[in-house]
Write a structure and sequence with these properties.
The chain is mainly beta. It has one domain: Porin. Helix content is 0%, strand content 61%. A 16-stranded antiparallel barrel has the order 1-2-3-4-5-6-7-8-9-10-11-14-15-16-17-18. A two-stranded antiparallel ribbon has the order 12-13. A hairpin with a 6-residue loop joins strand 4 and strand 5. The chain is globular.
Length: 339
Amino acid sequence: MTVTVDEGKRRTIGVGATVSTIEGLGVEAFWLHRNLFGRAEQLRFDASVTGMGVTGDGGDFDYTAGVSFTRPGVLRPDVSFVASLGARRLDLDNYREQSVTARVGLQRAFARFLNGELSAFATKARFEDLYGTRNFLMLGVTAKGDYDRRDDKLNPTKGYYAAAEFVPFYEAEYGNVAARGTLEGRVYKGFGEDRRFVLAGRAKIGSYVGPSDRESPPDQLFFAGGAGSIRGYGWRSIGIDAEYDDETGVIGGRSLVEGSGELRVQINERWGGVGFLDGGYVSSSSTFSRSDSDLRFGAGVGARYFTGLGPIRIDVATPLDPLPDSSRIAVYIGIGQAF
């Protein structure tokens, strides 16, 4: 038997989009150069703009841009070297962020389903929130891994997925040491002929240990709400009510608990439906205490249109305990199941 192998195209362009009545239109694109130096290296540029349509002011949109380089086969065949540089400007309900992050590290495929990564990073950031304008310089390490036994990443009907991340860091502007960790699990169980009915569940917890809220970077604290969290609420709109210098606002919490349940039904080859319930809370305590936290729920229904690239997702959600001035209906459109 003779096998002939031809190299594929070295350059690839990709685009994507999401739509939400609360979060607006988001578009993203990437340019990828494979086998850059002839040893399977990859050079990738990414960019995204989100929040379009919420306001007509481009200054209120969220922007991200970055470049990454990957070289496989470093130290051993299953280890890759990764370096990246990224910048973002976010205009969220509860804070504004401008930041640049540089990162270098190693990724390893320990087994067919198990992957891990260890990297060092440096982030320079400026935030505007309830506490005014603050600058941070973070130097730290990220350790993360995932175990993926799903039969399909975009439309799983059986299996499970688990992921963990731990980020200790030193913040140089205030001279503080802090750490942040998260655990997430997802499970899928199909029923009936060709697993047309699927029960899907997701649970996530997170904890932050560090200095006072005023000396903590807002993006390292926890918020909830939006797609991938508690649908029906604005993106990262659920936090802790706080008061500072005679002003009131919402800040991030020190722990997070959230979960989702879905019943998915494939009606025919092209169409499907889903009913879902999301819930969770953010706490000011690192130990998940609910003494100052309200449990928030969002519920809804959705439709799925199945394509060769994965299902197109349309979800309609409502908050069961709305926040002040929040919308009662939220519509989300994207590619792939919600989780």
